[in-house]
Design brief:
Radius of gyration: 19 Å
CATH superfamily of the largest domain: NAD(P)-binding Rossmann-like Domain
Strand content: 15-25%
CATH topology of the largest domain: Rossmann fold
Number of helices: 10
Distance between the termini: 37 Å
Helix content: 25-40%
Order of helices and strands: EHEEHEHHEHEEHEEEHEEHEEHH
């Protein structure tokens, strides 16, 4: 099975490619390298291109016959989406329309879409289930929900079958230590904490310690990136079997507070990791955790790296390797 992985040079996409290769698929990556890295893609599997380039997409689909497409090529920074909404709607929505048009022309009707649990906004109940109200609170979340709705329209119009996976925070790195999280600038909690342990930052800032949680700090959901890739593969397999469109949340079910994450990082690294309390950030809910009960029950998804310790250990192995380069 030949699978096009759009955004396959990025953090989650590159782990997806490794997962596909391990499962016997034939992945090809299409990525503009704006946030991805060519060296994260196995040799001979990268085509550098942009979803804004309709002619390049036409050529890509005319010279390759794909059984399915997996879509990871999105901008993901919530704060940036608020200050630069058009950037997010252009890339996450308009450019995705170019991909869908090219797929339609090539009569490819299977798509796995990496969405986000940000489509729910501030939840009424936690953990968040798939039937929770959809109330995204920023352009990033709205752009993802827009595309989900477009996919449903395409199913009605020309038979596109899609799998949309909604989750919060991917974390960790491949057990081999050869690929992992590399953002510039880094904005995700675990790699920022590990940068303190590596001496690249003086301390970690905790934005508010007066929330209505057991230790006063925000609680967030973390899933190992390889477990995310495995979940995407399960969804792909269902599409290939002809089981129709689907929607799943992915989460660890309980969440971890900022203090808990810092403590685990201290234990794994053996570093004191100084922390300072800063003011709350506007729009930070006290608790965001997604439920993966539906996917576990229906597709048998079971995380290999279920503990926060195992997630941090893999991230530390990767960050130690790149921190010495």
């Amino acid at each position: 099975m030949k699978v096009l992985v759009v955004g396959g040079a990025g953090y989650i996409g590159s782990h997806m490619v490794r997962e596909l290769l391990e499962k016997g698929y034939d992945p090809l990556v299409f990525d503009n390298l704006s946030t991805g890295h060519a060296d994260a893609v196995p040799e001979g599997r990268l085509i550098v291109g942009d979803l804004a380039d309709k002619e390049h997409l036409r050529q890509l689909f005319s010279t390759n016959r794909f059984d399915a497409v997996m879509h990871f090529a999105s901008f993901i920074q919530v704060g940036e989406s608020v200050t630069a909404p058009l950037k997010y709607y252009t890339n996450n929505v308009a450019n995705s329309l170019n991909l869908l048009s090219a797929m339609n022309a090539a009569e490819i009707k299977l798509l796995v879409f990496s969405s986000t649990a940000a489509v729910y906004g501030t939840p009424e109940t936690v953990p968040i289930r798939e039937d929770s109200p959809l109330r995204p609170e920023n352009p990033y979340g709205r752009s993802k929900l827009m595309l989900e709705e477009i996919l449903a329209d395409c199913e009605r119009a020309w038979g596109l079958h899609s799998a949309c996976l909604r989750y919060f925070n991917a974390a960790g790195a491949h057990p081999s230590g050869t690929i992992g999280e590399r953002h510039n600038p880094e904005s995700h909690l675990i790699p920022i904490i590990l940068q303190v342990a590596l001496g690249q930052r003086e301390f970690i800032t905790i934005y508010g310690d007066d929330y209505g949680t057991p230790d006063g700090t925000c609680i967030r959901d973390y899933i190992h990136v390889c477990d995310l890739a495995a979940a995407h593969t399960l969804a792909l397999e269902q599409l290939l079997r002809g089981n129709g469109s689907m929607l799943y949340n992915l989460g660890n079910g309980r969440g971890y507070s900022i203090n808990e994450v810092i403590d685990v990082c201290r234990r794994v690294t053996g570093h004191p990791i100084p922390a300072k309390i800063g003011p709350r950030r506007e729009g930070d809910p006290a608790k965001l955790v997604a439920s993966s009960e539906k996917m576990t029950k229906e597709l048998g998804w079971k995380p290999r790296f279920a503990s926060l310790d195992s997630i941090v250990e893999s991230a530390w192995k990767w960050n130690t390797a790149i921190g010495t380069k």
